[in-house]
């Protein structure tokens, strides 16, 4: 006869009982027999309301979902010959994204003859890297894809 360690509705340990006795006790109490830890020897069962247990677990899961934050990737687009003030405005946005805990993808678009001066784009991305060094780390090194150069930074 298989036996289980039984904990009754009040939380008191009833010791080892047969599964049939445990089911009868649960039925008398008008509750369910729930297996708490199946890997223990003997398995531990508890007399409780399964509906309430499921509801409590659902609530706990919802609370955990509410507290977790999804990290987004925000994109900042620039041109290699960006002016100082425009650059400062973009950098303010980058800092704000890091404060919010998001990653930032910097995209440099090269047009026409700008393709002949890729080093300007590299200098610009290195300047961004140096200015954000204390608040961010480089996740993806600057790389060229067709007409654009990209770099991904993530908050420290």
How does this structure look, described?
The chain is of the alpha/beta class. The protein is 38% helix and 34% strand. The protein contains 4 helices and 8 strands; from the N terminus they run ββαββαβαβαββ. The chain has helices spanning 19-29, 50-67, 84-99, 118-131, and strands spanning 3-7, 13-18, 32-37, 44-48, 73-78, 103-109, 136-145, 148-155. A 4-stranded mixed beta sheet has the order 2-1-4-3. A 4-stranded mixed beta sheet has the order 5-6-8-7, with helices on one face.
Mean pLDDT: 89
Count of DSSP H/I helices: 4
Q: State the strand order across the main sheet.
A: 2-1-4-3
Shape, per Cα inertia axes: rod-shaped
Number of strands: 8
Tell me roughly what share of residues is in helical segments: 25-40%
Structural class: alpha/beta
Proportion in β-strands: 25-35%
What series of H and E elements makes up the topology? Answer: EEHEEHEHEHEE
End-to-end distance? 59 Å
Task: For this entry, give a set of tags.
single chain, 156 residues, alpha/beta, four-stranded mixed beta sheet, 4 helices, 38% helix
SSE blueprint and pairings:
Layout: E1 3-7, E2 13-18, H1 19-29, E3 32-37, E4 44-48, H2 50-67, E5 73-78, H3 84-99, E6 103-109, H4 118-131, E7 136-145, E8 148-155
Parallel strand pairs: 1-4, 5-6
Antiparallel strand pairs: 1-2, 3-4, 6-8, 7-8
What is this entry, summarized?
By secondary structure, this protein is of the alpha/beta class. The protein has helices at residues 19-29, 50-67, 84-99, 118-131, and strands spanning 3-7, 13-18, 32-37, 44-48, 73-78, 103-109, 136-145, 148-155. The chain starts with a strand and ends with a strand.
